Amino acid sequence: MLRYILWRIAVMVPTLLLISMLVFTIIELPPGDYFESYISELRAMGEAADMEEIEALRERYGFDQPAPIRYIQWVGGMLQGDFGYSFEYQLPVSEVVGDRMWLTVLVSFVTILVTWIIAFPIGIYSATHQYSWGDYGLTFLGLLGLAVPNFILALILMYFANIWFGTSIGHLMDQKYLNEPMSWDKAKSILEHLWIPVIIIGTAGTAGMVRRLRANLLDELQKQYVVTARAKGMSPFRALVKYPLRMSLNFFISDIGSILPQIISGAEITAIVLSLETTGPMLIKALQSQDMYLAGSFLMFLAFLTVIGVLVSDIALALLDPRIRLQGGSTK
Amino acid sequence: MILGADLLRIEDLSISFAMLGGRVDAVRKASLRVSPGKVTALVGESGSGKSVLSQAVMGILPKIAVASGRILFNDPLDDTQTDILKLSHDGPDIRAIRGRRIGKIFQEPMTSLSPLHTIGDQVSEVLTIHEDMSKDERYERTIEMLRLVGFPKPERAFRMYPFELSGGMRQRAMIALALICRPALLIADEPTTALDVTIQAQILRLLKDLQQEFNMAMLLITHDLGVVANVADEVVVIYHGEVMEAGTVEDIFRRPTHPYLKGLMAAVPHFDMKPGERLKALREVPVNASQLLGKSGGKEPPGPEILLSARDLSKSYKVRKAGFFRQPDETPMRAVDGVSFDIRRGECLGLVGESGCGKTTVSKMLMRAVTPDAGSILFHDRQGPIDVLRAEGAQLQRLRSKIQMVFQDPVSSLSPRMTVQNILSEPLEIHKRGTPKSRLEMVSALMEVIGLNSRYLNRYPHSFSGGQRQRIGIARALALGPELLICDEPVSALDVSVQAQILNLLKDLQKDLGLTYLFISHNLAVVDYMADRIAVMCAGRIVELAPREILMGAPVHPYTKSLLAAVPFPDLDRPLDFSALQAANASDMRNWSAPFREDDDGHGLATADLGDGHLVLARNNADVRELRP
C-alpha cells in the first residue's frame, strides 16, 4: 500500500509538470500581455499611460525575457510558495486569493454536505420503493432540479427572497461587512446569506446524485446476497445498510476525486449572478484581463487538487473494497 | 411434539405473481411434507416453481407475490406450530425463524455471499442476530463451524473474502452460514448445480454427514435425478407449479407412475445405455436434413480419414497476483500444455474435464480465436491439408466455412437485435453465397432441419425457449455446410428434457449430414451418449484418450477414475461411494498414484499407448503393464 502511494505521488510530479506547461502556453497564446491590455484600456479612457513605469514593471517581472525563462521563473516561484503578483489587484496572488478562498470553501463544503444529506435518504427511498408514487414524485422533482439551469434558479430566488423576506441576497454577507475584519455580526450575516447559494448550487448535484444512487442501489438490490441476508433473519433496514448500500457506494467514493477541485471553482455563473465573493468570478476576470500570474497559479492549484482528489478516492476505494485491494489485474 | 410429526407441512400452497396485464400462477395447490431428520427432494425443471416454493417457506417471496394455503412449521425445539404464511412480511416473528430454525443455501456460491465482507463476518453475523453471545464466544462457534464444514485452517478462512476461495470452498462457507444456529430444517436450492462433478460429490457428502450429525431435515431442490437418488429419502416431483408425484425415493425410482416422471427418467443419459439406444426426449424434434444434403455434398468422395490433427498445443497466461499489500509476482499459468489429438472424419470426439482445465481454450485454438504459444493444427480438407494456425486470405475463408461452433449459452450467443432470418443468413452473406433469394430458401431449409417452422423466421430470439434457441444456434453453425462442428457444452444450460432433444438432434444431424463433432462437456454421461472416443483433460493436459467403451469400462488414469466415481447415478442400486471419495482435490497431481506423477529424478510425463487406441499420460519410464489396473 505504502509502495503504491509513493509510486502514485511520484507519478504526480511529471503530470503536474505537463499541466503547468499547458497552462503557461494557453495563457501566453493570446497576443500581448497584461500591460498591453492595460495601456489600451487607459488609452481608451483617454488617459496617457506612464510608459516608464510600465517598462520598469515589465522588467521587474521579467516580461522582457523569452518565454521559457519566464516559465522556469514562474514554476520555480510556485515551488517556493511565491505565486506571483496580480497586476489587476496590485497585490501578491496569495493575498488576493486568500480572503476569497475560505469563503468559497465554506460555500462549497456546506453545499456538498447538504447535497449528501438530502440525496442519500431520497436515493435509498426511491430505490427501495421503486415505481411507487413517492419514487415517481421525487424523480420528477429531481429531473426538474437537473433541467433548470442554476443561474435561472438564482434569479428567481433573488426575486422572491427580495419580495417575501425583504433581504437582498446578492453577496455572501451584508454589504456593510465587505472588507471588514471577522466579527460575530459578520459571521451571522454570512450564515443568513449562505442558504440561498447552497440551495441553488446544490439542486443539480442533489438531483444527479439521487439518480445515480438509485440506479446503483437498484442493481445491488437484485443480487443474491441480499436474499442471503434476509434468509439470515436480518432486519430489512440493517441488511440494506450493511450489504447493498455499502456495495453501491463505490461510485460515490470515486466522486470524491472530482469534488475537491469543485470546492474552489464550482458554480462560476451562479456566483456572478449572485455576486458572491468566491473564487469563481475572480478566475474568469483574471483570464479575461490576461492577469497571468493570478490565472496561472489558480489553474495550477485546481490541477493539483484534481490529482490529489483522484489519489484520495483511489486509496479510499482500495480501503473499502477488498476486491480492488486483494485482486491483482490479470493480463493476457 | 404435535401430531403428524411433520417438521414442515405445506398444504394447498398457491403462489401467483401480479404481472403486467394479469396474474402468473407459479405454484398451484401444492402440498408436501418434510419429516424431521429426513431429506425431501423437490424435483422439477426450471420454471416449475420449485424455487418460488422454497422462498415461500422462509417468507422471502418477492413483494409482488401473492400466496395462499398453509405452510406449517412444527418447531421441535419448543413444540410450537407456526403458519409461516400468516406471519407479517419481514416481521420479528418470521425473522426469528429465518437463519435460526430454517437455514438456506443457494445455487451460486459466489453471488450469494457479499464480496465486501469476510467469511467470518458473514457467518458470525447470524449469531449476532439470533444468539446472545459475547464476541469471543461467537468467534469460537464460527471457527468450530468452519472446521466442521471442512476448512483446513478455519482461523485463516475467517479473515478471507469470498472471492479468494474456490467455488467448492465458497459453498462450504455458505453451508457454515446456514447451519451455524443448528436449524431444524435446511433448504438447499440447487446446492451443487454450479459445481464440478468431483466437488459436487464432496458437497453432497458433507451435506449428508451434517444432516445426520445435526439430525436436521433437508428440503433439497434440484433438477438432477442422480443427486436425488443419492441423497433423498422422499421425493416430490413438480411440473408447472403442480405436484405430479410424491413418495419415498424407492417408490419414485422403482415404480414411477406419472408419465411426466417416466419421461423425465427416460430423458437422462446414463452409463448403461446400449450402443445405438436413443434417449426419449419429452418432446422429440423431427429432423429433415434431406434439403441440406444436396448442398453439403454427401455424395462427394470421402476425404482423408483424419479430419483434423492437433499436435503439442500449448498456451500459457501470465497471472499477475499483485495487490495493494503484496509484491507483484508473475507466474505463467499453463492453460493448455502439450495437447495432441486427432479427430477422425465422421466421428464424435468427446472432450471431458472440469471447469478451468483448458478444454474451451483448446476449442478456441481450433477456431483461431486464441493463438497457441506452440504447436500445430492441420485440417485435412478434401482439397488438401490446411495449416489452421497459418492460413491466410482465401484459405482462411475456406477454413472458416469448414469449422463451425455451437456455444453453451443460447441466450447470449444470439444477437437480441437480429431476427432469426438475419441470424441464419448472416454467415451466407459474409461468405457471399448465393443470391438474396437463394439465401432465403437456404434459411427456410435450415429451419426445417432443426424442426422449427419457417413462419418464425421474422421473430427475434427472445420469443423462443432455451431449447429452441439452441436449435437456432445449431442451424446457424450448419448454414455454411461445415465438416467439423465444435460443440462447447451445448446442453449445459438446458433442462434435462430439452437436453435429450438437442442431443438427439445433434446425433441425427451427424448421421444424415456426415458431420464430425468435437463435443466438449463436463457431463460424463452426456459425453458417453454422444462420443465415439473420449479425451479427458485435466490442468491443461489430456490425461487419457480412449474409445468410449474402454474409457468408461476400464479407465486407467486416477483422474478419470475419480471423475467417474463422482458422477451420481439416477439409480438406487448404484449409490455414490462417499467413503471412497477423495477428500482432497482430484485434479491435484500429488494425489495421483506414482506412475502418473512426475518424479524428482526428472522423469517427465509422456503419452503411453496401451493398445486399441487407448492413450494415457504417465511417467515416461513407466511400464505399460504397470499402468494397467
UniProtKB/TrEMBL annotation, chain A:
InterPro entries: BPD_transp_1_N, MetI-like, MetI-like_sf. Its main location: membrane. The keyword Mitochondrion does not apply. It is found in: Cell membrane. Residues 101-311 form the ABC transmembrane type-1 domain. SUPFAM superfamilies: MetI-like. This is Peptide/nickel transport system permease protein. It comes from Rhizobium subbaraonis. The lineage of its organism: Bacteria, Pseudomonadati, Pseudomonadota, Alphaproteobacteria, Hyphomicrobiales.
UniProtKB/TrEMBL annotation, chain B:
Residues 8-265, 319-564 form the ABC transporter domain. SUPFAM superfamilies: P-loop containing nucleoside triphosphate hydrolases (SSF52540). Coiled coil: none annotated. GO terms for cellular component: plasma membrane. GO terms for biological process: peptide transport; transmembrane transport. Gene3D superfamilies: P-loop containing nucleotide triphosphate hydrolases. It is found in: Cell inner membrane. Keywords: ATP-binding, Nucleotide-binding, Transport. PANTHER family: D,D-DIPEPTIDE TRANSPORT ATP-BINDING PROTEIN DDPF-RELATED, TRANSPORT ATP-BINDING PROTEIN. This is Peptide/nickel transport system ATP-binding protein. It comes from Rhizobium subbaraonis.
